[in-house]
Amino acid sequence: MWSHLPQGTSLIETVIYIGLIVITLPAFVIFILHTQSQYVLFDARTRMEQTAALTFSELQTTFTAADAITTSTSTLGVNPSVLRFQNASGNTVVIDAPTVATAFPSGMQNVRRLRMQVGASPAVYLTDGDIDVTEWQVSAVRNSVGTLTGVRVNIDFAMLGATNGVYRGSTFSADTTFGLSPHAIEN
Predict the structure, then answer these.
(1) What is the pTM of this model?
(2) 138 confidence band (pLDDT: 50, 70, 90)
């Protein structure tokens, strides 16, 4: 009346289980590694987009408050550009992209960072130390009679410092024009 249940697995069943594991495990590992690399790439792009958004917000605020754009001492149309102008308070504002040595776990690397200096205040970096500004080019925008009406900014970012190739391969590019207020003059 009582039926006996098998007390273990047979050799054939064990071989089948091992075979299934051998077939599915590599696919699962590849899936996990791919998902992790996509997350790292997403994280890098998100960081660069957030940095660009904050940078452009600061530039928009700064440019709209400009009273005089100093094109004679600015280096426009080259990479890296230097832009000098006066804000509403009469302070000279300088925005440039110098190359600075930055410490990473793998050692020191030269990184070009976007910075802004207002008057005699210490310069403030607008970009993170692990984001390289590979292009910072500012050009004058003029109307049909040659009056300066805005500045065009072309900026490219690249991630540095991480050992993951996906992370290091992340880049971001933006090209936008900022209109100047009607009272801004060129000197």
Answers:
(1) 0.76
(2) very high
